[in-house]
Amino acid sequence: MGIDVGTQGVRVLVVDEQGRPQASANLVLTPSPTTLPPGWAEQSADSWWAAVKICIRKTITALKEKGYQTGDVVALAIDSTSGTILPVDAYGEPLRPALMYNDNRSASILQKVREVGADLEDKLGYAFKSSFALPKIVSLHVNEPTIFEQTARFIHAADYIVGCLTGNFSVSDHSNALKTGFDLIDYKWPDFIERKLNIPLDRLPHILSPGEPIEHVSALAACETGLSENTQVVAGMTDGSASQIASGAVSIGAWNSTLGTTLVLKGISQYLLKDPLGRFYSHLHPQGMWMPGGASNTGAEWITKEYPGQDPADLVAQATHYLPTELIAYPLERRGERFPFVAPEAESFFEGVSDNPFEHFAAKMEGVAFLERMAYDMLESLGAEVGDTIYVTGGGARSDVWLQVRASVMGRQMIRPAIGEAAMGAALLAASKTLFRNLGEASQQMISIETRIEPQPLWQEIYEERYQQFCQACQRRGYLP
């Protein structure tokens, strides 16, 4: 069983040892209150648990209808939003709503955290941001001292659900703990957190590797959910890392491109990669490898903004007739870019002449593909190994035409998995050390491929020239050196 606790909802997915879905359930969560100050985002942890219980009960009912027993759920894991933090008391009761991953109230104290944590930043190759959990904890210490003093543990969203299921609220995984300042190399909480930020280390959770067993489901949780007390709860990871695992990108040199509102790239590296410009950072793989990743502000957001109410599939079908185009487009719906280049002043651009809206659409599909290739070229220039195959997920990956464009621009095969969602990644973790020896073995047995798209040779030749023109257009605007 994989449990995905996202910002907008909860999803529970149960698969068998071949990765075939046997039951699933979804439930929408109440969004953050609109009365919060700008830049703040909170959510009730109780609402997470209430939604998880409903979804688990639904999946257990569905399993029983298929002839399964509750004890057939061997293990479960939970993924959740990265950077979300929750203070709980000694009994695991939330002391306030959780500060969500996109809560930026700690911006005023971020510089202090960066100054005292500079050695860790350099060591792991990232920069603390206000979205990270550690600055949020410092902010609570400064602005809500009463809550801080009552806190027994600062935990993450996945940790809270683990606690509700087992009664143990003191454990987390090294994936969620990254943004709380956990040292992934020496595998410990660094002493600057207590010595210079006055955050007692005993208020931070004990850390396990994703997939490591925690405890079995408690008698109370079994009554509330319908699970068996024999079901093992194992350590999970962040939702982004879980989605990467579900994509099939689990071996060295394998990369996953998720094309949704934004374009997110995540891969597997034997060594820790560092970028002096901070365009990406790395999680630690459960088997000791590294998981570098970065996110562009460009993606598929332009479709919903510029073509409201229209069916994307119909738009792609019309645009197909104009591929490849002679136009150069960079579809950015907001000001500023962060990956593969850092340009706060970046804006969308369009070069070429056409009054056909479908040709414009086709050019923007190409523009996203050009940016994707630029990202992989940048990663390779910094020492990343990038194989001949890209594992693709997200709403943009559902279009075979767009995948054909992307494959031809990059000269790589595009592979779309049958189930490329975070809950599937959590389910793989649950199986990784219960049904299998490790995550790699579980992925090999449980991930199935839905579609393979090869580069189109004629397009590939045309797009090589167009890609160079795209890079030159970015250089003229000062986005690239």
CATH topology name of the largest domain? Nucleotidyltransferase, domain 5
Provide the number of structural domains: 2
C-alpha end-to-end distance: 47 Å
Q: In the CATH hierarchy, what is the class of the largest domain?
A: Alpha Beta
Strand content: 15-25%
Helix content: 25-40%
What is the radius of gyration computed over CA atoms, rounded to a whole number of angstroms? 23 Å
Number of helices: 17
- What is the molecular shape? globular
Main β-sheet, in a few words?
7 strands, mixed
The class by helix and strand makeup works out as alpha/beta
Under the CATH scheme, which architecture of the largest domain would be assigned? Answer: 2-Layer Sandwich
Average pLDDT, rounded to a whole number, is 96
By CATH's scheme, which homologous superfamily of the largest domain applies?
Answer: ATPase, nucleotide binding domain
Characterise this structure.
The chain is of the alpha/beta class. The protein has two domains: 2-235, 2-Layer Sandwich (Nucleotidyltransferase, domain 5), CATH 3.30.420.40; 249-476, 2-Layer Sandwich (Nucleotidyltransferase, domain 5), CATH 3.30.420.40. The protein is built from 17 helices and 22 strands. A hairpin with a 3-residue loop joins strand 1 and strand 2 (9-15). It is globular.
